Amino acid sequence: MLLGQNAADNLASQLDAKLGATVTDHAIYKSHTLKYENEFWDDMSALGCGYPDVLVRVTEYMDKIVEYVEVIVANKFAYVANESVYFDTRAFREAGHRYGKLNPAAVGSSMLASESESNFDTSEKRTSCDFALWKKSKPGEPSWDSPWGPGRPGWHIECSAMASDILGDSIDIHTGGHDLQFPHHDNELAQSEAYFHCHEWVRYFFHSGHLSIDGLKMSKSLKNFITIKTALTMYTARQLRTLFVIQSWDKSINFSTTVVNEALGKEKQLKNFFANVESHLRQHPMEGVQRPGLDEKQLLSRVDQAQIQVRERLEDNFDTAGAISELLSLVRDVHSYIDKCKSASGKPQPSLLKKAAVFVTKILIVFGLSDAKICEIGFGNSTSQVGSTGSLATVVAPYVEGWVSLRDKVRSAVKSGASQGSLMELTDKVRDEDMVDAGVCVVDAGNTSTWRLDDPTILQRERDERRLKLKEEKLRILRQKRLQKANLLEKLEASSIAPQELFKAKDEYKDFAFDERGVPTHNKAGKELPKNAKKKLEATYKRAVTDHEKFKDSLAKDPRFLQNMKVELQEIDSQILLLEQ
């Protein structure tokens, strides 16, 4: 039997209501959660995120959590009620502490506070602001033994106990989403200050923005969410990381086509920059005059200025988006310098180009956008076969196969007397197929070509996008051509009718009276047509005479011209059909 998603959800709810209380084995809960934990680590690895120094799980910290609650109770900042334990916010304030440091305006908001507790409005609490440290066990929920009876920890106490165990009584930086300011982070602070008898457990909080999809908060009910796995089928990890870097960390990010295209555009600018610099480093390794002229001195000063500007951006609320803008500004200046050297028939100084590229790479490494090593330039080689630990034959095989394939095809084409155009098609095919699959991007520039290494999947995607755009443009041109051809054919077929038969063939003039030229004079009732109607008919007749004469002239020149036009129209239809497949 097959069930739709809604049916499966309903069935799960029914089973949970009837049999959920019978599930008490912690191994079942652990097995279920580990499944999603492993998926999470897989996603983090695919995104290129590093592992934490310490991994903590609530289920492995239950003894510490119970001990943490006991200390808070002993310090007179919590009370026991019906086998549950609640934090006493009134006692906390009376002891000279501030409750709700991060979002004072939200204190007392039952709507926000209730998001963290299923029975927030319970009568067991002394005041509405109090919150659960330990919850009495309910049927169907996992529970652990405690001095107050079987139960489970409250949401906030888990984080306080685990963080305190690793980081102690003072934390420099605490992060989280801005929606966690209240109640979660404010309650964390209250619990920890109550535990340590201190007034400052965390020095700084960094609250990040949310990720929205096309302007809407991701929601299961709206079905507008996207998984990391799905996103990585459309974009690379670096492209997604670039998307995050060019946004303000403390503002919400809108995941939309426009924003993604902006990230892809910036990545492409950086790729082209590295390819341009690497091309010149390969072509002109320290040859010619190296004494810096005015242009070189200006660019050298510009690199130093960019270093200062990037630092200022990062010191201003970690403005990574602004730092990327400064890098791209430097990139444009380097391109201008190279172009200026070319126009003066000179060569850019490689040491200067490398200095700029090394700095850009250094910042990209800091942002997690490059895997390059110190003093290298570019995005690194983690996504290509270069730097592989395999044998030399394994590493070079894709490139050698590409050029051997080209040689075989060129030899075969020359032997068969292929045209120059056919040979050009072969070289383009190697560029777009063999080299792309090997992770090499070849860019034609006039009579020469430049190349760079990249992830084959990225190059394949870019190639497919170019082909799709080219296909769409061809379809647009063909459809426009077909429309023009069809309109012309319709006009010619109409002009093939003899003028004296033009009106007689139309149903609207059936039973009308006509003059010797076939122009209507009286309607079917025998009434003479009005002057303005006669005038219009006369004009139509004269145009028909002119068009018919032109048609006869064309027919005299080529008796099959009409049939040929129909064949051309059919050929266009075939081309359109082929492209639409």
From TrEMBL:
Gene3D superfamilies documented for this protein: Cysteine-tRNA ligase, C-terminal anti-codon recognition domain, HUPs
GO biological process assignments: tRNA aminoacylation for protein translation
Highest taxon of source: Eukaryota
Listed Pfam families: tRNA-synt_1e
Domain tRNA synthetases class I catalytic: 29-263
Species name: Physcomitrium patens (Spreading-leaved earth moss)
Record lineage: Eukaryota, Viridiplantae, Streptophyta, Embryophyta, Bryophyta
Gene: LOC112292140
Cofactor(s) listed: Zn(2+)
UniProt GO MF annotations: aminoacyl-tRNA ligase activity; ATP binding; metal ion binding
Keyword list, A-Z: ATP-binding, Ligase, Metal-binding, Nucleotide-binding, Zinc
The protein, known as: tRNA synthetases class I catalytic domain-containing protein
